[in-house]
Amino acid sequence: KFLGQYIVNLDKDKLDISVRSGSISLNDLILSPDALKSLDLPVNVKWGRLGALQLKVSWSSLLSKPIVAEISEVFLLAVPAVDQVYDKEEEEKKAKNAKEAAIAALDAQGQVSEESDDIYSNKTMFRVVSNVQVKVGQVH
Question: What is the full DSSP assignment across 49-69?
């Protein structure tokens, strides 16, 4: 589901089989036109391609070894978004909301919910997510 937001025509059946083995290698992926939307940049993706996407997960050592995502041979053609008009007030509002969200996230990290019976799994999930490494190379 996550990759489907960024990749066009991703074969989900292949992905499930590869995930169980701990190694995923996908080649010649076409980027979705909405691939950069979440970054809120004033550009539109006209065309994009990832030469290779490799994920490595050591399921037996999940807490001690990193999850590694390697992206290489990135070709991207982005054009200015002509339909976007700069609005200073809107930009300031977005910046304020982003700061508030970051503060809330930091507050949430420092607090453990008293209602949660599964504190161990929360800490484990935080440890796994904190150990993710993303490597990007050959961007054109």
Answer: EEEEEEEE--GGGTTTS-EEE
- The tokens describing 28, both together, are 């010649």
Helix (H, G, I), strand (E, B) or coil at 104: helix
The answer to whether 35 touches 45, Cβ cutoff 8 Å, is yes
Instruction: Write out the chain's pLDDT in tens, 140 residues.
Output: 677 777 888 776 666 566 677 888 888 888 888 888 878 788 888 999 989 888 888 888 888 888 898 999 999 998 888 776 777 888 888 888 888 877 777 666 665 454 455 666 777 777 777 888 889 988 88
Q: Residue 42 in contact with residue 78, Cβ under 8 Å?
A: no
Q: In this structure, which amino acid lies at residue 3?
A: L
Looking at residue 33, its amino acid is P
